[in-house]
Amino acid sequence: MKTSHKKALAILMFIALVSIVNFFFPFILDSNRHLILLGLVLVILYLLLGIDIKGKSNNRLIIRDILIYITFYYLLIYLLGLLTGFVRTIYSYTISNLVINIIPSILTIFGVELIRNQLINKTNKKKIIVVLSCIVFILFEISINFQYYNLTIKDEIYLFIGLLVASSISKNILMTVIAMKTDYLPAVVYRLLIETLDFVVLIQPDLGPYLNSVVAIMLPILTAIMLINMGKKVKDTPEKVKKGSKFYIVLVIILSILVLLNSGLLKFQTLVIGSQSMLPMIDKGDVVLIERLNKEEKDKVKLGEILVYRYDNKIICHRVVKVSKRDNGTFYKTKGDNNDQDDKIVLSRKEVMGKVIYRIKYIGLPSVWLNELFN
Asked: Tens digit of pLDDT for each residue in 282-316?
């Protein structure tokens, strides 16, 4: 192994070691102390390998494409906000907001991406350095942010996995792809536009944690795929380019439909079944397609249909065994096919979400296993 490779490995191991220690002693990188670590690493990098910040010729092309992707991204989520509503962020237009939030974020982004790019390119894109740099910076990001999640609470664990761990993995994959194609500037531009906008634009779509985590995971992955294929366009025939473009368009459409079906924004919604109360028709781990019902449709629910309703902070999927028409509305009694007794609650229209119209066997099992793991 070349001396430059060993030096790069030593720098990565140093960052990884400090990040791991910080999990046990969070004060090490707390309160923006991670900026001291990044500054120290930059000094070590300069002394061992040197730092070359000269821009590459393809910078403008990649930055242009990144700007196009991010523009479409913001158009999409703000249009989606017309359906979900908007919320105000916790930040404000004050000097303290600038000093406490924006400046440290900018310095972190510049430091991480400059270090990543120099390590990868100073070692001629050595595979072990490329892979380890991606893993180490995932570890570093999780290490400096995990303290903001209360991991003794189940819901916080889901947020930790979706909003931090999974999104950090996808983002660092994209940053690694950019580092291999050009210098650090396009990566900095991407991260500044995505990670600092909340400090400046104080109104954002109320997408909720689920959609926010899906977007945070999918945007970097789709951007990375597009950037990778951008380099192949010269070699590929027009037929291959056209075929590849169609594939990614179809992929985006399918993923978008899946996300929307899980979000509850559409007339139809999917739900993973977590119990065996509806055996033998619906098993644990099955996914059911729900038709969301309006007020008039709820009054037309028939005996024997399978309703989905909210009760005691849970979503339950049981069959209607009794329908009662009263002056103040329609009420329903339900029962799980595999249960001995009827459900205790008498449902009004308010509790009813919709009815089951289709079932897909077993594809929700991974979600059930994950839920049981953290319970």
From this structure: 999 888 888 888 888 888 888 999 999 988 878 89
Reading the block at residue 181, the tokens are: 């194609």
For 170-184, give one letter per residue: b (16+ CB within 10 A) or e. bbbbbbbbbbebbbb
Residue 313: phi and psi, rounded to 5, are 60, 25
DSSP letter string over 217-275?
Answer: HHHHHHHHHHHHHHTTTTTS-HHHHHHHHHHHHHHHHHHHHHHHHHHT-SSEEEEE--S
Portions of the chain given CATH number 2.10.109.10: 268-373
User: What's the whole-model pTM score?
Assistant: 0.68
Q: How far is residue 247's CA from residue 241's CA, in Å, rounded to a whole number?
A: 10
Joined together, the tokens standing for residue 46 give 């300069």
Burial class (CB in 10 A: 0-12, 13-18, 19+), 135: middle
CA 197/CA 206 separation, integer angstroms: 15
| CATH T-level fold of 268-373 | Umud Fragment, subunit A (2.10.109)
